[in-house]
Amino acid sequence: MTAINSPSISDQPNEPAGSLFDPVTDCDNRFVSVETNLLELEDMVIWQSFASPYILYYDKATGDSGALCAKPECMHMEKQNNADCLAYMGPGSKPASFCCYRGQIYWVGGYKQSGSYEQNALYRMNPDSSGKKLLFSFNPPDGHAPQEYRIHRGRLYLRCVTNRVTDGVPGSSLAIISTPIETKDFRVDYETEVPDTNPWSNIMRFIGDNVYFAYIYNAGEENGYVTKVIRHDINTGENEEIISDGALEGALTGFWIEPDGTMILAPYHKNTYRDMKIYRSVNGGPLEAFAPLCDENGEFTTRFFSGGIMWGIKSSEDGKSREIWIRDLEGNTLYKGALPKDFLKGTAHEDETLLFAGMACGTDSILMIYQFMRKDEERSAGDVLPSVIQFLVQYRLTENGLEEQLLIAGT
């Protein structure tokens, strides 16, 4: 294990002085572009496992966890598709849609009503499971295909990637559309069409009164890959292209933005490119390489960017263990070594490969979701358990390395 050679995560402030972040009304970027439903509130963590359509919670004060439903007589997940359970999100619940706005939890779920063609709905409830309400049902306008739903300063934002054909030429529409959360009134905030190459390389972030949209597309052999970052002003509706650069090669794997506007972008690693770099833009300036994507031996590859942290991964030869490389946004190593997995001791998955299903980093903790195929011995006769099982684990970076805590087990 490599010793920590810069201040620990817990010693660094969540936001620098002068931050525009308002935790009451603003989207928390730690959980944007995380392909799961996960939120950390002041006194609890809430999560929807990929394997189950129920909202789960972990109480930080008591250590209690379970379905987020206060009804004492409720069977919760023991009853299949338990619509009477307050934690039940229903069929068709959307990953990457959990949000907290003014102290309430929001999510996008499925909607099925006789006589209605609409298939989605925005829901809301209090963190104690009271006040559960359907706000409105909807279909995205103009056939847009949302990949993510986030609430920021009173509006629901949808990041969309939609196949389009223009003049017989296939391509993709990349768009940000939004609506007020109290009433359905969609508008297109930004839309562009790109060649149908790597259309999924797009990431949305929020800072103050701005929505940032980063994407990469292949402009052809002559021009290669083009990276763009658009800044949308939520008050004026104006869009500004603040980056158009050809520095990155290949798909966009990471995009992070600090409250002062400093942007970090990284390409997806290619095995033949050990010298690939991570790039930074200051004050909307050109992208400049400042740190390697991989370590000097090409063993660790940086995959995740969240909460001021860059996270790299190395798998063992047998695939049963993983090592990680944590750096700050200056490229300084905070930790490099084994990823603890004591939470698996005594389970049917103790000797299996750690499969990441989602993560979010803050300046004082790392939330990690692991996924495994459910074993026969984890089932009982007649149960309706899904084929996969997931665990939610928290890590804290200390002077002695990573401290591990299992929050929610085996759902």
Order of strands, main sheet, comes to 1-2-3-4
Q: Give the rounded overall mean pLDDT.
A: 86
**Cα distance, first to last residue?**
31 Å
What is the strand tally?
28
Task: Specify the number of helices.
Answer: 0
Oligomer state equals single chain
Known CATH architecture of the domain at 140-257 and 259-297: 6 Propeller
Determine the strand fraction and express it as a percent band.
over 45%
Q: What radius of gyration results from the CA coordinates?
A: 21 Å
Low-confidence residue ranges: 1-19
Tell me the series of helices and strands, N- to C-terminal.
EEEEEEEEEEEEEEEEEEEEEEEEEEEE
CATH top level label of the domain at 140-257 and 259-297:
Mainly Beta
SSE blueprint:
Elements: E1 37-40, E2 44-48, E3 56-59, E4 65-67, E5 99-101, E6 104-110, E7 120-125, E8 133-138, E9 146-152, E10 155-166, E11 169-180, E12 187-195, E13 202-207, E14 210-218, E15 225-233, E16 239-245, E17 252-257, E18 263-267, E19 277-281, E20 288-292, E21 301-306, E22 309-315, E23 322-328, E24 333-338, E25 356-361, E26 366-373, E27 388-398, E28 401-408
